[in-house]
Amino acid sequence: MSTDTNLLMGEVIEDPQGQEKDVEQLLVGLLKALIAEQIVQTSQEALLERV
Amino acid sequence: MKASQQSIETQPDSKKSIRCLVIQMARLGDTLQSLMALRAAKQLYPNLEIHFLARENFASAANRVPWIENVITLPTDALLGPVFSGTKTEAQSLVELAQWLRPIADQPWDLIINWSFSDASSFLTGLLPARIKLGYTRRPDGSFAGADGWSQYVQAIIQGNIPQNIHLTDVLTTQLLTALQIHVGDPMPEGNAPVTSKTFFSLTLTEREVAQLAGDSKRKWVAIQLGAGRPDKTWDPKNWARFALSLLKGNQDCGVFLLGGKEDLEREQKFREALNLLVESDSEVSSNPNRIKNGIISFVGETSFDLWASLVSRSQWLIAGDTAAIHLASLLGTRVLNLSVGPVRFTETGPYGNGHYIVSSGANCEGCLSNGTIENHSCQSDLTPEVAYAVWAYAAHEWSHRRQTSLESHFLQLGLQDQLNSVLVYRSKIRPVQEGGGVVYESILQKSIRVTDWSAMVMGHVARSWYCGWVPSIGQEVSREMISPPLVKHLRELEESTEVLSKVCSQAILIGNTLGHRGATLKTPHLMSIQEREELQDLGKKLLELQGLVDRLAQTHPALGAFSKMLAVQMHHLKGTHLGEMGKETAVCYKVLRDGVSIYSAWVKHTLALVRPVALRSSHLNLVETPNISAEKDLNP
Asked: Is the Cβ–Cβ distance between B168 and B348 less than 8 Å?
C-alpha cells in the first residue's frame, strides 16, 4: 500500500520570512490560548483536590 | 519510501546544519518522550542542530542534554501571572509576549516541529517562520491546521480518545524521521545505536556524591515515585507502604529510594505513618523495626532534576504510576514496574524499552470514565500491593527462571492466584524493524483480549498502513484462545456496518472524482451556467449526505468513530482553492479512509473466522468429531 509523501512532508514554505500573516491576530490568539490553558488546568486541579 | 524532494539543501554527512526548533509546551513527561525521539533523530542525522523550546518550569531535563544546541524557555508565570492578578492588562502582556518572541522569529529556521499538540502552540508555530513545519500550526488566515499526516492522526484519533496502540514516542520519532528522509535524504547508516543510556543527561552530581547520599553501596535500590500529576494516577500512600514492606521483607539486599516533589510531602507523611503501623503489627519485623526503616531513604521534597535523575539512574527498578518518572527511567535504561491506575492509556504513554512491566486493572473503572466526578476508583482497589509485589518479584528474578515459569505458576506458589483474575500484566518489547519497529506491550497472562485492546491493535495497523506504507499480515497477533464472547458479539454487530462504510466510501470517491472532473471542465471557477451550478450543488450535497452517513454509522457503532473523526479532520484540511481541486482531494481522502476500513473489515472477518467450529478427522477411529457444543456455546453468548 503506497503512502502519500505529500501527507508526511509537513507544511513547506518557499519564503518563510516573506510569508504574509496577521501577526497581531496570531499573537492575541497565543496569549488567549495560554490564558485558557491556565484556567482549565487550575480548574482541573481544584476538582481533583475536592474529590 | 523515496525522497521525492530535498527542501533543505544538505546531506546528512555534510557540514551544513539543519536548524531545527522543537516546540514542547506540555509537561515534563512530554519533554522526556520528545527527548527520546530527538535522540534517535540526532543519531541518524548528526547535522541536526536542535533548539528546544519549553515552559520555564519544565525545561530542566532539556538543559541537561549535551547534544541540544540551545534551550529557549517560555516564561509562562511571568507572562500570565500579572494578567490573572490584575496588575497588567492583556494588551500589556501582549507587548511582553511579542518582545520575547522577536529574537526567536528573527532566526532562520529550516524546520519547526511542534510536539505540544495544543491550541496555544499552534499559534506559536504559525507565528514563527520556517521552511518546513510539522505538528499543529496556523494558516496565514489564522485557522488551525495539522501540518502533516501524523499530526492529523493525533488530532482525530489520539486526542479523539479512540483506542490505538502506537506509543507517542514512536509517533514523534516516525513523524520526524519520515520528514527528514523526504527533505534531507537517507540517514547515516551507522545511526541505529540504542537511544537509552545511563549517561543520557550530563548531570552535575558525581557518582561519588550520589553514593554518599545513597548510603549503603551494596544495596540494590528500588525507586518509588510516590505521587503523580493527578492523585487518581497513583496509589494511596497506604498501598505504597504495604508494597515497600513486602519488598524489604522479601529482599534483604534491597533498599528503597522514596521520590517525590514538595507537593508529595504530605503523601510521604501518610506513607510513614502507615508503614509504622504495619511494622508494629508484623511479628516478622516488629522486633527489629529499624531493619525496615533503615532500608528506606527519602528524597521527597527535593526538586533538583540532577538529583532525581541520578537516583533513578542508580536504581535497578522504578515503581510508579503514570508519571514523568517512568519516561525518565526509560531514558536512563532503568527497568520500570508501571502501576497503571487512573484514566491513562499505557499503550501511548507507558515505559519505553525492553523488559518493563505494566500492571493494570482488568475491568472498566467508573471513576476513570467519570473524569473526576466519581471518587471511587476500582482500578486502584483491583491492583493490590500484594499483586504488584508478586509481579515485581517475578520480573526482578527473570534472570533465574528466564520466564520458563509462567506468571500464573508464580502466583499459584504464592497463594495469590485468585487476585490475578482482576488484573492484566504486560511486558514491553521493542519490535524488530522488519516487524514494524516501535514498542509493543505483550500480555504475559493467558487471558482473552478486551474489545478496547482488539480495537487499539487494529487502529495501530490502520495507522501504519496510512502513514508508513506498511502493514503486517492480518490477524497474526490474535489466536483463538484470546477471543472472548463479548468480543465475538461486538464484532458480529460490527461486521455489516464495516461493509456499509466501505460502500459509502466508494460512493464518495466516485462523486468526488465527478466533482473534480466537472470543476476542471469549467471555463472559469467563478462563472458557469445555471445547469452547471445546479449539478455541482447536487454533487456537493451528496457528499455532505455521505459524510452524514459516516457520522451516523459511528454513532451506532462507536468503534467506527475513528473513521468519522479522521474524515472530519481530513475535510478540514482540504487545500484546494477551486471546486475541482477540492473534489479530487475529497476523493483521495475517502480512498485513504476506505483503505483503512478494508483493513478493519479484514480483521473483523479473520477474528470471527478463528472462532468458527473446526472439524477434526481421525484416521484410526474414522470419526469426524466436531468440537464440543459447550465450547461453542461459550463463544456464542
From this structure: yes
Tell whether A31 is within 8 A of chain B (Cβ). Answer: yes
Query: How close, in Å, is residue A50 to chain B by CA atoms?
Result: 9
Q: Which of B7, B137, B178 is nearest residue A12 as measured by Cβ atoms? A: B7
Give the torsion through C-alpha atoms of B523, B528, B529, B534, to 10 deg.
120
Cα dihedral B84→B87→B89→B93 (10° resolution): -80
The three cell numbers locating residue B627: 468440537
Q: Cβ distance B348 to B153 under 8 Å?
A: no
CB atoms within 10 A of CB B567: 23
- Asked if B414 and B405 touch (Cβ cutoff 8 Å), the reply is no
pLDDT tens profile B317-370: 999 999 999 999 999 999 999 999 888 899 999 999 999 999 998 877 767 766
From CA B56, how far away is CA B79, in angstroms rounded? 11
Q: pLDDT value at position A1?
A: 45
Tell me the pLDDT tens digit for each residue of B154-184: 999 999 999 999 999 999 999 999 999 999 9
The gap between the terminal CA atoms of chain B, to the nearest Å, is 46
What pTM was estimated for this model as a whole?
A: 0.91
Question: Mean pLDDT across the stretch B593-597?
Answer: 96
In angstroms, what CA-CA distances link B514 with B90, B511, B530?
Answer: 50, 5, 18
User: Measured between alpha carbons, how far is B592 from B595 in angstroms, rounded to an integer?
Assistant: 5
- Structural element, H or E, at residue B154: none
Query: What angle is formed at CA B63 by the lines to CA B59 and CA B65, rounded to 5 degrees?
Result: 125
Residue B126 has pLDDT above 70, yes or no: yes
Question: How far does Cα B578 stand from its chain's mean position?
Answer: 38
- CA-CA distance, B388 to B360, in Å (whole number)? 10
Q: Are strands B18-24 and B109-114 parallel, antiparallel or unpaired?
A: parallel
Q: Who among B7, B131, B468 is closest to A3 (CB)?
A: B468
Which of B145, B372, B592 has its CB closest to that of A47? B372
What's the whole-number mean pLDDT along residues B511-525? Answer: 87
Rg of chain B taking only CA atoms, in angstroms: 28
Residue B180 corresponds to which cell in the numbers above?
A: 527528514
Predicted local confidence at residue A6, as pLDDT: 85
User: A44 or B77, which is more confident?
Assistant: B77
Contact flag B120-A30 (C-beta cutoff 8 Å): yes
- Chain A closest-CA separation from residue B339 CA (Å): 20
> Cβ separation of A7 and B178 shorter than 8 Å?
no
Grid coordinates of B560? 467506527
Judge: A10–B134 Cβ closer than 8 Å, yes or no. Answer: yes
